[in-house]
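If your schedule permits, I should be very grateful for your opinion on a structural question. Thank you for your consideration; the sequence and its tokens are set out here:

===
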Amino acid sequence: MDNLISSKENVHIKYAKKVMTSSKFRNQENCFLIEGIRLCEDALNNSVVLKETFYTKKCFEKSKNILEKIISKSQKSFMVSESLMNIISDTDAPQGIVCICEKNKLNVNFEDKLKNEDKIVLLENVQNPSNLGTIFRTCDALKIENVIILGNGCDVYNPKVLRGSMGAVFRLNIFEFVNSLETVNKLKNFGFKIYATTPQNDAKFVSDMDFSEKSGIVLGNEGNGLTQELIDICDEKIKIPMNSNAESLNVSVACGILIWEMMKKELLNER
């Protein structure tokens, strides 16, 4: 029978809360926290290592079959009260299950994976976790398998990123590199044509581009866009045609439009 935790001073509760709130601690411990039946099941189905599972009696009774599978694969599991679940949850209305998972190693086999791919998305200094999660979800839906995080962006394992990705973060190949220029130059050496998204006047409309060759689209920070140094080393500057009264689009919305333009021939050919 699983351990029953009844105190907020319990070492496992304190540990889970710290994993949930601290990016530095997540890196130190090489783990992250997810919550909700759907996301925890996605982690299980994608062979993510489940270190600890916390669940409420109510959740167990409601989703017994799924929870039994998750618990059976967890290294440790604990039943907790609703009030303790609120402490280790990042949502206003917790579903009653939280898992602490082991991080996958990022940047593993970067060169081997990219040599065999022909479409990628790069994100420079994207800060908002909801935006990043939505971008991951969009990439997964539109058949982009590789995403590169450049510069000092949001933590990939932020709880809001994980929820927003709807499990996509477990299926994508995600790479992180601080040096944007070095990474883009390496991709160009692999034969990629890199497109910088910018509202600058000399940028071409994305709808006029031919993405039949190896292609990568780069999007920048929500407020400042791409750094000029990165724009300068890209092969083309592109933008989205839109109403002249509109100043800009949310980066996750823009990403969805750009990916569709890059992938539409392949996606439509599969219908």
In short: The radius of gyration is 21 Å.
